[in-house]
UniProtKB/TrEMBL annotation:
Gene Ontology cellular component annotations, sorted alphabetically: plasma membrane
MF (Gene Ontology): transmembrane transporter activity
Major subcellular location class: membrane
Keyword Transmembrane appears in the UniProt entry: yes
Keyword set includes Transmembrane helix: yes
PANTHER family (UniProt xref): INTEGRAL MEMBRANE EFFLUX PROTEIN-RELATED, MAJOR FACILITATOR SUPERFAMILY ASSOCIATED DOMAIN-CONTAINING PROTEIN
UniProt keyword list: Cell membrane, Membrane, Transmembrane, Transmembrane helix
SUPFAM superfamilies in alphabetical order: MFS general substrate transporter
The protein's name in its UniProt record: UMF11 family major facilitator superfamily permease
Organism the protein comes from: Cuniculiplasma divulgatum
Top-rank lineage group of the source organism: Archaea
Length: 408
């Protein structure tokens, strides 16, 4: 009865964001435990970096096919498959871990890898669905609300992690996933899409809807948005470096990692809430403002000498990355037709994944020699380089500059 008070678009937004919150929150406790487990030893730190590298490599390999698949199939079905897969993983993972507890050193990394990879597929499908459930006038508001719903799971997951891990144990962190995801599957039945997949025969599929062909034809614009995506790329590197920094430099534990997630996510939610109430036509300048805030945090965070300082500086990332994502995604949704959004986002994602792969490989090799403090500082330099390169591309590439003239 409550949902009936909303119009069709608001009802879609409500269902979409509840599904997102429930599904991602369910993964939190196990992910927190895995990060602590892998960050606590020299071998584990290398293993954590290797898992992230392999997960990204898998994403690069399936990315072109996934982008085309998203644009040529019902997106709800893809999301449904992902949710059922998570239920299977959680139940099977619990049974295996419970039966072979002495093999935790193998089971935990394997489960962490599978969940990390499938989470990427989940987000790729979500981005494309979001464009099809509302009209273009609500894209800005939708992205702001989506940012809130993207951060809430980190708070819920991190909050759940403390009692679940201390009272029930890490294996039961998998058990809580199934009921939450099951409810998401039920809600998905009521989500209405305004999208008709492109039907293609084998010849036209290869010739006209290939992700790689589309990327080649629109490379300069895709490359520009890839540069704007460096807040996300560096955040991924931070997901590797920050737990190591907390555990080994600040001498924190699972609660410290959870509080770090909560601080970041709280600011992300606040940013999304604030921007959802502003009647702003998001454009390039908003992205750059938030990118500069984020870059400042890359230099401040490694200078922390206490956990309180770290949490304070972490707020720059809690504002910068979400704010840039809202601005960037709104521009993309306004300018890229929904029937091409899967391939366009795939193009940005492939370039981002290749970069994340290379950086994680370098940082994983370097972590024992250079330490997390210096490597976190280097991410600030990387951010500044990305900002300068994107400005140069905007200034000297006609395709990019004309793209934004059309927007304005």
């Amino acid at each position: 009865m409550v949902i009936k008070i909303f119009n069709s678009e608001n009802k879609n937004l409500l269902i979409f964001n509840i599904i997102k919150v429930l599904s991602l929150s369910s993964l939190g406790p196990f992910q927190i435990y895995s990060l602590l487990y892998l960050s606590s030893s020299e071998t584990g730190r290398v293993e954590l970096g290797s898992i992230m590298i392999f997960s990204i490599l898998l994403g690069i390999l399936v990315g072109p096919k996934l982008g085309t698949f998203i644009d040529t199939h019902e997106r709800k079905l893809l999301l449904n498959f992902n949710l059922f897969l998570w239920i299977f993983i959680s139940i099977t993972g619990f049974i295996v871990w419970n039966s072979y507890a002495h093999l935790s050193g193998v089971v935990i990394p394997a489960l962490f890898l599978i969940i990390d990879f499938t989470e990427g597929l989940f987000f790729s499908t979500l981005r494309s669905i979001q464009q099809t459930i509302i009209g273009h006038k609500k894209y800005g508001m939708s992205n702001s609300i989506s940012e809130i719903s993207g951060q809430i799971p980190a708070v819920i997951g991190a909050t759940l992690a403390i009692p679940v891990l201390s009272l029930l144990g890490p294996r039961f962190s998998l058990v809580i996933q199934a009921p939450l995801i099951t409810f998401s599957i039920i809600l998905l039945r009521y989500l209405k899409e305004n999208f008709s997949p492109v039907k293609s025969n084998k010849e036209s599929f290869k010739e006209n809807v290939s992700s790689l062909k589309y990327i080649k034809e629109n490379f300069s614009i895709i490359f520009f948005f890839y540069l704007l995506n460096f807040t996300f790329i560096v955040t991924t590197i931070g997901n590797f470096l920050k737990p190591i920094f907390i555990v080994n430099v600040l001498h924190g534990n699972a609660s410290g990692i959870s509080l770090s997630e909560i601080a970041y996510s709280t600011l992300g939610m606040s940013t999304g809430a604030m921007l959802s109430f502003l009647r702003t036509k998001f454009n390039l300048k908003h992205s750059y403002i938030f990118m500069l805030i984020f870059a400042a945090g890359c230099f401040l965070i490694p200078s922390s000498t206490s956990f309180a300082m770290y949490i304070g500086f972490q707020t720059t990332h809690g504002v910068g990355n979400p704010g840039n994502r809202i601005s960037r995604n709104t521009v993309i949704m306004n300018m890229v037709p929904k029937e091409y959004s899967g391939r366009f986002n795939t193009g940005v994602q492939i370039l981002s994944d290749i970069t994340r792969l290379l950086l994680l490989l370098i940082f994983t090799i370097s972590i024992e020699f250079l330490g997390p403090t210096l490597l976190l500082t280097i991410t600030g330099v990387i951010m500044l380089v990305a900002i300068i390169l994107s400005l140069a591309l905007y200034r000297f590439n006609h395709n990019v500059s004309n793209f934004f003239k059309n927007l304005n």
